[in-house]
Description:
Blueprint: E1 2-9, E2 18-23, H1 31-41, E3 45-49, E4 57-62, E5 67-68, H2 72-84, E6 92-97, E7 100-106, E8 110-114, E9 118-121, H3 125-132, E10 145-148, E11 153-157, H4 161-165, H5 174-181, E12 185-193, E13 196-199, E14 202-203, H6 215-227, E15 238-242, E16 250-256, E17 262-265, E18 268-277
Parallel strand pairs: 2-3, 4-6, 11-12, 13-15
Antiparallel strand pairs: 1-2, 1-18, 3-4, 4-5, 6-7, 7-8, 8-17, 9-10, 10-11, 12-13, 12-14, 15-16, 16-17
Amino acid sequence: xTDIHLVHVFPAGPGGGNPAPIVVDAxxxxxAEMQAVAGKYGHxxxxxxxxxxxxxLALRFWVPEHEMSMCxxxxxxxVWVLRRLGRVTGDQLRISTASGEVRARLRDGIEISQPVGxxxxxxxxxxxxxxxxxxxxxxxxxxxxxxxxxxxxxLVPLASTDILDGLQPDFSRVKEVCDLVxxxxxxxYAMRDRQVFEARQFPRSSGYPEDAxxxxxxxxxxxxxxxxxxxxxxxxxxxxxxxRAMGRPxxxxxxxxxxxxxxLGGHVQVESAAGSAPPVR
Length: 281
């Protein structure tokens, strides 16, 4: 049997963070067995495997409905678990994922790399507003954008955090609208303070309606904010707070790193060695 370590990644208060089941010895597990772990816990799950030549390890990621190419919080959680178990040494790792190479640096905390993001305007704005239950009057004076470092997220700038907290999306239509605009989730956000933003994530088809902390969406947001002139490159962190409306307060830290993309990180808390994965065949 393979142990599953349940961690909470990016917590910023009691009950906060995004739960992530991590399997540290996943070599030989079938796709069905990995998906069964994600289905059992109902969260993005990370699976640690031996890496190809030149890499320290490989990671795969599953949600209850499908495999993902990259998951930011599960990557941070997996590296944290490996360090806690004494399975990694040094302060840098090269990680192979389906979306490409990810670097990790292990210092006081853990940060992982993401490449330079892409940002494009969204033309089907009315459909996005309609599924979120808002109107153009609720928007901040910035464009609705599709942005990505690994998966496309639709960034929706709102005029206030009160509007963000009060969103009541039509969850039955989120997948339809995401397909229309070509994204994997809706990511409405509002400015709290300089370099501090609140956000919520409504995924396209992960098997749950809302996500407490989404590293990949926050990374995409950083590049949307940069294009809109709301943040600058440099070592001063951008803080994206998520999950508060769900009662699971979370905070993701992002550092725009020159022309080389960004680093994302945050705190991790262990809940338990939660159980065992199916036996590997």
